[in-house]
Specification:
heterodimer; A: alpha+beta; Butyryl-Coa Dehydrogenase, subunit A, domain 1; Butyryl-CoA Dehydrogenase, subunit A, domain 2; Butyryl-CoA Dehydrogenase, subunit A, domain 3; 3 domains; 4-stranded mixed β-sheet; 8 strands; 14% strand; globular; B: alpha+beta; 8-stranded mixed β-sheet; two-stranded antiparallel ribbon
Chain lengths: 383, 385
């Protein structure tokens, strides 16, 4: 970690301790998104941490972003999700957009506005190409129609990346991506979902009815939607791993705090408990390294699709097992306190941004890929 | 699944399934959201003979016994695990009084408890690391012909709703043994106060609170079992509880896996119902296999209890098994339903039935409550090493 990264992480730690942790339980209970978070984060510009400096943002690299997200996950995975989902939407524009599109999309983020990534539909979850939303070109505009559901930040975003078929007959290959600004006529906001976990992260259903966007809002070319979506998700998935690692670490720390209080006389618990705690830390550290490794590959410009899927799957699996185990160690205390939140949050993280089953398909594809031609041996090279 | 049951037992189980579907299913979600204790249901449960099954003789119900109790609890848990939990807490009190109570105590409490005129529960846990140790430990000192109880009990289920509390206090001073002794204390006794209801993750229709005892005076007659032998009773009660709660876990998992399988049959992705995907089939199969193994363990332990045979190691094994797998079964069932699985309220635009989110919270509650940190491992190891 560079001194600069250390300073950024320290600042994130302080923000989380002061502004996030004190509100996490209350917002979890009400299950509503609170604009408070955006207001509190505004002075730091952290919602623009992934916005390149040329567009006025903080321009943090992937590893630095991951350090910040781990701290946010430590404080509240739901609020961390608000930040990471906003970055997800922006990655789509940074990946596929032109200079004007990037500038427009990033602008709200400079003042703690957020974005939303709208791919999922009732009929298109894991099978992202099975959607029915359409975009029909008419003069200088596209007319968008169709439903979008389980959209994180969907009710609160200033800008959206919406996927819709420009050529429905082509299936996934007919999908295109569009920038949609908030407040357009025909953008019909549906109900907020009441979720098991990540409750203060806003999730909504919405419907597009003849929503007109200028052709200048098409990202890339027609038919590139699925490619853009997959590349974006590759970029964004490790962020979920980062949030999950933070969540798991927090849960372990709180568990230890509780055990120390319950058994004040014992400086060291029995081996069973010691080993349980050690196993939890082993899992967390492994997931953390997997995620940092992915970020390093990305920074070095190397392929990281498999590693990205591993970072998300491992991170969220570890969060699930560590939170479950911590609750088991705390027994009744965990059940009748705010600890349930950790476990509920972890469960949702195994599902969103591509279920862990879909990640396994991505990973298995790499595992099963035909072996590359072996590097020439010394002897062969000499000959 | 029920091949080994007698006809009378099968009738009871059938009745439980029908009662759950007709009366519990429709109100379960509402009870959870409102955190309502369903007082009016207690009479109905008694009328169905569900409140005294653990004590065949005094209850006089055909087919009664622990085997029937776990069957009924399993059936009710499919619809509303919180109600099953209320019954389990009550049953522990009934079981203990029937096994260790004096003739007078049995006469005074059992008929009323079995008929549902009174609701019972047990109050064992304390905030400290073990009974009698900790600043808030429940202590008993001799006063007149009886005892004066002072201290607190933690995480008491059915708290506030119960009329009868079976609790365990440590007699002070006591040089001979650890002094833990069972006491039956009626709700409303001077100095006995129910703390604020604790916010629980699941089983929300079953109230959980701390009990505080401040100069609660009880007579010699309220001592349950032999003085200073309360630890043995408490351990046995916890063992019985482990088996009964495992039945709850199996019921929840059974309902969840049916729900997830139903969803998988209807949810089309990649042009086919996802139930056709091998990955989904494996998840379903694992849940069913885990839950089946847990159920075999429950049934075996229940038969041992009915036979008056030693059953604690078996109960501990069941507790260990469901402790590890209970929540995992719901983690996986929800995974099958994806976004639908994590909805507390089924979205209007999707349609559907009961959400799994509540079952996830309920199963966590079932496996977490009454979980002294090292209870199962130590007990099992002690028998072989």
């Amino acid at each position: 970690m560079t001194p600069e990264q250390q300073a950024i992480r320290q600042a994130a730690k302080e923000f989380v301790a002061k502004k996030i942790i004190p509100h996490a339980a209350e917002y979890d209970k009400s299950g509503e998104f609170h604009a408070y978070l955006l207001e509190a984060a505004k002075p730091s510009g952290i919602f623009a941490m992934a916005v390149p400096q040329e567009y006025g943002g903080l321009g943090y690299g992937p590893l630095t972003q991951a350090l910040v997200l781990e701290e946010w996950g430590y404080g509240c995975a739901a609020m961390g999700t608000t930040l990471s989902a906003s970055i997800l939407s922006m990655e789509a524009v940074l990946t596929a957009g032109n200079d004007d599109q990037k500038r427009r999309f990033c602008k709200p983020m400079l003042s703690a506005g957020i974005g939303a990534f709208a791919l999922t539909e009732p009929a298109a979850g894991s099978d992202a190409g099975a959607g029915v939303a359409t975009a029909v070109k008419s003069g200088g505009e596209y007319i968008l129609n169709g439903p979008k559901c389980w959209i994180t930040n969907g009710g609160e975003a200033a800008v959206y990346v919406v996927f819709a078929a420009t050529d429905p007959a082509q299936g996934a290959k007919g999908l295109s991506a569009f920038i949609v600004e908030r407040g357009l006529p025909g953008f019909i906001m549906g109900d907020r979902e009441e979720k098991l976990g990540l409750r203060s992260s806003n999730t909504v259903f919405f419907f597009l009815k003849d929503v007109r966007v200028p052709v200048a809002n098409l990202l890339g070319k027609e038919g590139e939607g699925m490619k853009i979506a997959m590349e974006t998700l590759d970029l964004a998935r490790p962020s979920i791993g980062a949030l999950a690692v933070g969540l798991a670490q927090r849960c372990l720390d709180e568990c230890v705090k509780h055990l120390r209080k319950r058994y004040p006389a014992k400086s060291y618990p029995g081996e069973t408990l010691q080993f349980d705690l050690a196993d939890m830390q082993i899992a967390i550290e492994g997931a953390r390294q997997a995620q940092h490794h992915t970020m390093s590959l990305r920074e070095a410009g190397k392929p990281f699709s498999m590693e990205s899927a591993i970072a998300k799957t491992l991170g969220t699996a570890v969060a699930m097992s560590v939170t479950s185990q911590a609750m088991r160690l705390m027994g009744s205390h965990a059940y009748t306190s705010e600890f349930g939140k950790f476990m509920r949050d972890a469960k949702v993280m195994q599902i969103y941004e591509g279920t862990n089953q879909i990640q396994r398909l991505v990973i298995a594809r790499s595992v099963l890929a035909p072996p590359k031609a072996p590097a020439p041996t010394m002897k062969a090279a000499a000959e | 699944m029920t091949a080994h049951l007698t006809e009378a037992q099968q009738i009871l189980v059938q009745r439980a399934h029908e009662f759950a579907e007709e009366f519990l299913e429709p109100i379960a979600a509402e009870l959870d959201r409102g955190q309502v204790f369903p007082k009016a249901l207690i009479g109905q449960l008694a009328a169905q003979d569900f409140l005294g099954l653990v004590v065949p003789e005094p209850s006089g119900v055909a087919g009664a016994g622990f085997v029937s109790h776990v069957e009924v609890v399993q059936a009710l848990s499919r619809s509303c695990p919180a109600i099953a939990s209320i019954i389990n807490n009550h049953a522990l009190c009934v079981y203990a009084i029937a096994h260790w109570g004096s003739a007078a105590q049995k006469e005074r409490y059992l008929p009323a408890l079995i008929k549902g005129e009174k609701l019972g529960t047990v109050a064992i846990q304390e905030a400290g690391p073990s009974l009698g140790n900790g600043p808030d430990a429940l202590l008993a000192t001799r006063q007149g012909g009886g005892f004066n109880l002072n201290g607190r009990k933690a995480f008491v289920r059915n708290a506030g709703a119960a009329d009868v509390y079976l609790t365990f206090a440590t007699i002070q001073p006591d040089a001979e043994s650890n002094g833990v002794t069972g006491f039956i204390v009626d709700a409303g006794t001077d100095g006995l106060n129910v703390g604020p209801r604790l916010e629980t993750m699941g089983l929300r229709a079953c109230p959980v609170a701390d009990l505080s005892f401040k100069n609660v005076l009880v007579t010699e007659g309220s001592v349950m079992g032999t003085q200073n032998c309360g630890s043995v009773v408490a351990t046995q009660v916890l063992s019985v509880s482990a088996v009964a709660e495992a039945a709850q876990t199996v019921g929840i998992a059974g309902a969840a896996v049916s729900h997830a399988a139903d969803y998988a049959r209807h949810r089309v992705q990649f042009r086919h119902p996802i139930a056709r995907l091998q990955a989904i089939q494996t998840l379903l199969a694992e849940i069913v296999a885990d839950s089946h193994m847990a159920w075999l363990g429950v049934q075996h332990a229940a038969r041992l209890i009915d036979d008056d045979a030693p059953f604690e190691p078996e109960a501990a094994m069941v507790k260990m098994f469901v402790g590890r797998l209970g929540s995992k079964m719901l983690v996986d069932a929800i995974q099958i339903e994806g976004g639908m699985g994590i909805c507390e309220v089924v979205p209007k635009h999707i349609g559907g039935t009961l959400p799994l989110a509540r079952m996830f919270r309920d199963i966590a509650g079932t496996t977490l409550l009454d979980a002294p940190d090292d209870f199962p491992d130590r007990l099992i190891a002690a028998r072989i090493a």
